[in-house]
Each structure stands twice: as structure tokens, then as C-alpha cells.
């Protein structure tokens, strides 16, 4: 049994399959998820687990070279906007409709129980060397 890190077997396995340039969408409970990407749904109840908890757990495990978030997050969810600005390198903002379109190219979607709007980010995996 693992001692630390991500214990969810589906999520740990999906992360191990990621490569340089792959997209990982970390999203709130309301984000529409297109057919195609592998989905690990961690949502349990409204707010559980939170976007921040899941994002921090993923950032501890992955090398991230950039990310995309909705421009609307700044006004609608300042807490999530601050978290993203602080933790995601090379973060760029696009309209929410564009973020939803980009989601179809993600390799993995991790759905949280977050119930606040626009708590979504499409991460781009980097490489550790």
C-alpha cells in the first residue's frame, strides 16, 4: 500500500500514464465533460473535495509547464483566481466557452466537488528533466 501521495487507484494510475504535453483538466462539479478524455470523478458532496485540495495534490505529483483558465474566474471566483495565479506557471486566460472547447483535447479530467463557479484549469504536463 502507498504511504503517501494520491491514494485513489484510478487517479494514481491515470497520472502515471501522462506524458509531456498532455492536458489535465481539474474542474468543478458543474463543468460539462465531453466524451473522449479519461475521467476520474472525485466529487462526493457539494464542496468535497475542494478544487484547492485536488489542485494542490495534483501539483505535488505532476510537472506542469502551463495552464489555461477562464477569464471569468477573476470576477466570479477571486479565491480560485488567486490560487491559480499563485500555483500554475504560464497561466493564460480564455473565455469560458473556449476553455470548454479545449477540454475535448485533454487526456484526463479530474472532477472535484467544488461548488463555486469557474474553478477549472486545463494543465499542460511538463517533463522533469
Task: Give structural notes.
With 129 residues, the chain is of the alpha/beta class. It has five helices and six strands, in the order H-E-E-H-E-H-H-E-H-E-E. The protein has helices at residues 9-16, 51-61, 73-76, 78-87, 96-103, and strands spanning 23-27, 38-41, 64-70, 91-94, 108-111, 121-125. The chain has a six-stranded mixed sheet. The longest helix has 11 residues, at 51-61.
Indicate the low-confidence ranges by residue numbers: none
**Mean of all residue-level pLDDT scores:** 97
Number of helices: 5
Strand runs, count: 6
Largest sheet: 6 strands, mixed
Radius of gyration: 13 Å
Order of helices and strands: HEEHEHHEHEE
Brief summary:
With 129 residues, this protein is an alpha/beta fold.
Q: What is this structure's SSE topology?
A:
Layout: H1 9-16, E1 23-27, E2 38-41, H2 51-61, E3 64-70, H3 73-76, H4 78-87, E4 91-94, H5 96-103, E5 108-111, E6 121-125
Parallel strand pairs: 1-5, 2-5, 3-4
Antiparallel strand pairs: 1-6, 3-6
Can you tag this structure with a few keywords?
globular; alpha/beta; 5 helices
